[in-house]
What does this fold into?
Amino acid sequence: MSKKVKGISFIVLIVFIISLAGCNENVNNQPELDGQPVLDDQPASDEEVPKYPDGPIEIIVGFGAGGGTDTMARLIQPKLQEILGVPVVVQNMPGAQATIAVEHVYRQPSDGQTILFQADTVRAYPTMGMTDLNYKDFEQIGIGALGIANFVVLED
It folds into this structure.
């Protein structure tokens, strides 16, 4: 491997490590209690907190069975079901590069009972004219996996 390729690989690795370190910081500069952010709009006592979930949860995957997004949803599903104590079902809704699923979830009530598992392709939808919906139309609750771009060349 040439020195140039090693150097580029090292820089990519450092950028990745720095970006991971940034994920652990309290980016909203909110006070913390037991490691959890304390938000100003939180209820003062447990009695005021609405119970969640109040029924089954549906995970919508905009891609076919067996892909990366589907696999991640199916890995998380049993743990969610165990922790939350309600049925959690994964439903594949492929088509139109997942815009069918995106628009379906957007039309559901904003109660957390329908969750979209989506790849980062949603950023391109408005540009491609597929839908006007983008990340700003949803509330992100977590990142299940990150894909790391690899740049490779032949040794010579």
About this structure: The chain is about 30% helix and 10% strand. Strands lie at 32-33, 36-37, 57-61, 88-92, 114-117. The first strand starts at residue 32 and ends at 33. The longest helix spans residues 3-22.
